[in-house]
Structures are given as structure tokens and as C-alpha cells.
Amino acid sequence: GDSVTQMEGPVTLSEEAFLTINCTYTATGYPSLFWYVQYPGEGLQLLLKATKADDKGSNKGFEATYRKETTSFHLEKGSVQVSDSAVYFCALKAGGFKTIFGAGTRLFVKA
Amino acid sequence: EAGVAQSPRYKIIEKRQSVAFWCNPISGHATLYWYQQILGQGPKLLIQFQNNGVVDDSQLPKDRFSAERLKGVDSTLKIQPAKLEDSAVYLCASSLKGTESFYEQYFGPGTRLTVT
User: Fold this and answer.
1) Which residues, at least 6 apart from B51, have a Cβ–Cβ distance to it below 8 Å?
2) Which helix (H) or strand (E) element contains residue B65?
């Protein structure tokens, strides 16, 4: 069945460091891909998305490119801030209704 | 625009007791989702409603979990009787529609359930 695998955390970085969180997927058909973020004490919120191959989603300095050939959707940011500390979830939605989430990667950014 | 509302935010019960969670989606959103998020895992869909009809409940443990969405607005998720493994955060989300990928899901803050 459809699945999402993302790198285990926690990831600890210093402020202004470069961030990469890896995400790969398995799906039938042509899924849409998402990154959600969960800040402490809050619900999940959509960070960015891409609906077809080679699309790049971007928001708040974060980017991810839909790579069909490697079935990947890695999240990147050039310079992280303390306020980026959160849990990041990669997700996909293939044909039908269900969204499949990865296990989440916790990011800590130190000042 | 008001977000997705959930209550209670926290609940502690003993095993074999019953519990109910309430969700009020964003006004006008036809699709409502209930997810279970166990510590250290991603959210798992329990049930999805389109208006007041169920479109996916394949992962809902129907022997103990039930959900309803009367009049296509608010929804209630019930567990009866609860087991220790039901300890989790229960998330409600809504979207304008569920069948198209570009309709964003909006999540509520969740209800953290602890079963002792």
C-alpha cells in the first residue's frame, strides 16, 4: 500500500544552519505530496505542497521538489531560526480520499 | 475565519470507561476527518465524512469506536470501552472537499487522551 518514510529525528541545528529533512514515498498512481508542521501545543498546519512531478512547493523559506524518478520530496531551508523548532510531517494523497502521513521529524534549533 | 474547534483538550480516564470528543469544523467545509496520533507516530485516519456520509472508515476499530456527523456540521467521536492502547492525541480536521488533493486540510488543536 501507499506509504511515507521520513528521516528519524530529532534533528538539532544551530541558528542559520542549512536544513534538510528527507522524505521518500511509495504510491500507486500520481500522488500529491505535502509537508505539514506542528509547533509545540498547536495543531498541524500545511507548510507546502506539490501536486505533480517536478513541481516545487515553497513557503516561509522552506522548499521541497517533487522528484518522481527518486520518489522523494525532501524539505530544505537555507537558514533556520529558533522559531522553526517544531515537528515536520511528510504526507501524500494518492487516488481516493486518504492522506498518508510519515512518522514526523522533530527539529530543534539552538540560538 | 475561525479555525477547527475541539473539546476537551485533555482527558484522563480509566480503562473500560467511555469517552467522547467533539469537533466543530470550519464553516462551509464539507469534509471532516478524525485522526489518531500515537506518540512518536504520524496521524492515522480513523474516519472521513463527506457532509454527513461516511466515505472511509476502514481503519476505525468499530467494536469500540464510533463517530457521527449530524446535519453535516459538528462531529462526535466516541470510544467505549477504552483500552490502554487508545492513549493518543485525537485530531479533527476539515476541508472544503475531500476528493481533490489541492483542498487543504485544516487541523484542530487535538484532544490528548490518557487511559490508565
Assistant:
1) B30, B69, B72
2) strand B65-68
Sign of CA dihedral B66, B26, B12, A100: positive
What is the spatial distance between Cα A31 and Cα A55, in angstroms, rounded to a whole number? 12
Which residues in chain A have Cβ-Cβ distances shorter than 8 Å to B42? Answer: 4, 89, 91, 101-104
Give A101's contacts in chain B (Cβ within 8 Å): 42-44
Q: Over the stretch A14-65, which tens digit does the pLDDT of each residue have?
A: 999 999 999 999 998 888 999 999 998 888 999 999 989 999 999 999 999 9
Tens of pLDDT, residue by residue over A53-99, are 999 999 999 999 999 999 999 999 999 999 999 999 999 987 666 88
Show Cβ contacts of residue A105 under 8 Å, excluding neighbours closer than 6 positions: A6, A7, A8, A9, A10, A11, A21, A87, A88, A89
C-alpha cell at A78: 537555507
CB contact under 8 Å between A43 and B45, yes or no, is no
